[in-house]
Amino acid sequence: MSQAALAAAIEAAEAAGLVALKYYRGGFEVTLKPDDTPVTQADREAERAIVEVLSRAFPEHGVLGEEFGGSGNTETRWIIDPIDGTKNFVRHIPLWATLIALEEHGEITVGVIHNPVTGDLYTARRGGGAFLNGERIYVSDEADLGRAFLVHAGLRPAHGTGHWEGFLRLVDATDRQRGFGDYAGYSLVAEGKAEIYAEIYPEGAGLKPWDLAPCKILVEEAGGRFTDLSGRATIYSSSALATNGRLHDAALALLRP
């Protein structure tokens, strides 16, 4: 079923991309959600487009979306972020994407990440590898932390956590550091262009499963490793760490309070 599910997810992501691009290149209104994060008509309409495609292909599957919440089957469900990087979208920074993943009995089995501006399409199936625009991608084989490229999702959220001192240790231990954020950090690790990506937020106030679901399988199928900051391979945590695998334990050790 995973091949058919992947095809449906790609179709849904491309449909959402067309909706989002219409607003990105035209205009939209921005409102704030209760958590002070922005949302636009594009987010809502893109999620509706995704659900329409996936419900037609797999009516028995449930849905968990950022904008409209959860419904239906919770054992086999689609996890959806119509626009990951809404703040970039609002500022017309072309680093945003549609994220779709299939979760079956707690395991992510299919993942799609689509940036409609660049046209980049990342896909992964459990046991089937990770791909960018149809070409297989792999994490780097760098095993020396001192030569590693560290990507992070932002400094202010990390500063308010017990991992701040550990993050500074990780900065000192690595060769180069840049802040890209959102899906982009995971794609850089999966493509072997960076070795470590850390998203660090206060507990309960950070990442959601729709931010992480397809990113997790993409990194893992590219040969890397994805966990929270305690080493659990879960998308249900406020923070996340993705690496090429070889440097994961060393990064976790440095980040530990």
Number of helices, counting only DSSP H or I runs of 4 residues or more: 8
Strand content: 25-35%
Choose one word for the global shape. globular
Structural class: alpha+beta
Name of the CATH first level of the largest domain: Alpha Beta
Q: Report the count of strand segments.
A: 15
CATH topology of the largest domain: Fructose-1,6-Bisphosphatase, Chain A, domain 1
- Radius of gyration (CA) equals 17 Å
* Residue windows where pLDDT falls under 50 for at least 5 positions: none
For the biggest sheet, the summary is: 8 strands, mixed
State the CATH superfamily name of the largest domain: Fructose-1,6-Bisphosphatase, subunit A, domain 1
Give the spatial strand order of the biggest sheet. 4-3-5-6-7-8-9-10
Averaged pLDDT = 95
> What is the second-level CATH architecture of the largest domain?
2-Layer Sandwich
Helix content: 25-40%
